[in-house]
Design a protein that fits this description.
There is one protein chain. The protein is an all-alpha fold and about 230 residues long. Helix content is about 50%, strand content about 0%. Helix 3 runs antiparallel to helix 5. The relative contact order is 0.07.
């Protein structure tokens, strides 16, 4: 009798446990179904306003690209004029009427608009070849792709090229009164520097000239050493 009552009690507890789990699962399903978000319908926009805005943005981008190309070519021209003796290039001084001459050559090659790109490679080659023969100054291979219009060619031929050393270029500039630049080296030699009896402030230091070019210009001196 006790065993039957115990089994009945255990069965009731198990049934209560199952009913509780079922309620928990139902609650979870309800909660999960409540968390589902509804899909929003796309809003209808003004097509004309968007197209106008896109056209304005494209115009701004094109304007900025044109300005960038102009600045890029100007920087390349400045680099060409300042590269100096480091490149194997001939000096060039533009004539006074260089722009007029370039425009005349452009008219001969049927190029009337200075901002319009060249019609093709043959037209560009004929125009730049005529400019090179006229001025004796040719466009480097590294800059051929940058000259796209007659205006670019005018800027190129208006840019002077100075191949002198920076120190030699300074000699032709009028310096302030309180500034003096010594162009030649000062080397001590006991036979020529006799102010202090042919003695140097560094009696044990030699002034040896090793270059073949400067041996003809400067005299070397080997100081006598008492030791070793």
């Amino acid at each position: 009798m006790a065993g039957i009552m115990r089994s009945t009690t255990t069965g009731k507890a198990f049934v209560a446990f199952l009913s509780k789990k079922t309620m928990d699962l139902t609650h979870i399903r309800c909660a999960s179904s409540n968390r589902v978000k509804r899909i929003k319908k796309p809003e209808i926009t003004n097509r004309d306003a968007n197209q106008a805005k896109a056209a304005t943005m494209r115009a701004e981008v094109e304007e900025q690209s044109v300005l960038y190309e102009g600045k890029r070519f100007e920087s390349a021209a400045q680099s060409l004029s300042a590269r100096g003796y480091l490149r194997a290039i001939k000096p060039y001084t533009p004539p006074e009427n260089v722009s007029e001459q370039v425009l005349e050559i452009a008219k001969e090659n049927k190029l009337n608009d200075t901002k319009q790109p060249f019609g093709g490679m043959e037209q560009k080659f004929a125009f730049l070849s005529a400019c090179g023969k006229t001025f004796g100054h040719w466009v480097p291979n590294s800059m051929l792709h940058e000259l796209e219009t007659v205006g670019d060619a005018i800027v190129f031929y208006q840019t002077p090229i100075d191949t002198r050393l920076p120190l030699d270029a300074i000699s032709s500039v009028e310096l302030p009164e309180n500034l003096y630049i010594q162009q030649d080296y000062i080397r001590f030699h006991p036979e020529t520097d006799t102010m202090f009896g042919g003695k140097s402030a560094f009696p044990k230091s030699s002034t040896i000239v090793t270059g073949l070019k400067y041996k003809q210009k400067y005299r070397g001196h080997e100081a006598k050493k008492s030791w070793p």
